[in-house]
Amino acid sequence: AAVPAGVLALLLGTLLWAPWQALHGAPLVELSGDQDFQLFLHKNLEFTRKIKGDVAALQRVVCDIFQLCKEEELLLVRQDLGIVQVPLEQCHSRTFQAEACFSQIHDGLRAYHGSLAAVLELLPGHAGLVETLQLDAANLSSNIQQQMEDLGLATVTYPTEGPGPLPTFSSSFHHQVGGFFILANFQRFLETAYRALRHLARL
């Protein structure tokens, strides 16, 4: 079944710089010495870093082709696009729990897998890279789900905000800006997910 597209993220800056020391009471402390879990964390840290690099490459393409490079110049246009947020607050709240954080990363990756369809339409000349990014997002999501099952963690489903199809862009310019924000927001999402995995690897 197709992943519902259209759940895009604009994560608040305050969330990105949340105090990671708040995670020190995490219930995964007892797993910190588990070799399989550590292998999972380090492998997927590298995988997340690779995905971030591919997103950055596509951001440079959008900048070069459409001259859309600075987010602050496009904030007013973004308001017209119907973009909603993919939450990741469970990955840095003071009540951090592995199930909740992994579930939100898993769900967010599925959402971005769908929303990247708009980028694919926007950049047909770079279809290979976009499709690789979609595949990697799906694979990372699957890795996390498999690890949760291996650890006996329950999948937690959080209601998405305003789920639905991708916005219908009223002009090619709006499509270009929409693609810009899909990539910018995905990059933020990956930064937060990366920090959560890295922190768990250091526990």
Search tags:
203 residues; mainly alpha; 6 helices; elongated
Topology, pairings included?
Layout: H1 13-16, H2 35-66, H3 75-78, H4 98-122, H5 127-151, H6 172-202
Model description:
The model is unreliable at 1-27 (pLDDT under 50). The chain is elongated, with a radius of gyration of 17 Å. With 203 residues, the chain is mainly alpha-helical. Helix 2 packs antiparallel against helix 6 (172-202), helix 4 (98-122) runs antiparallel to helix 5 (127-151) and helix 4 runs antiparallel to helix 6. The protein contains 6 helices and no strands.
The N- to C-terminal Cα distance equals 37 Å
- Please count the helical segments: 6
Largest sheet: none
- Average pLDDT number: 79
Taking Cα atoms only, what radius of gyration do you get, to the nearest Å? 17 Å
Contiguous runs where pLDDT drops below 50 for at least 5 residues: 1-27
Briefly summarize what is shown.
The protein has 203 residues and is an all-alpha fold. The chain has six helices and no strands.
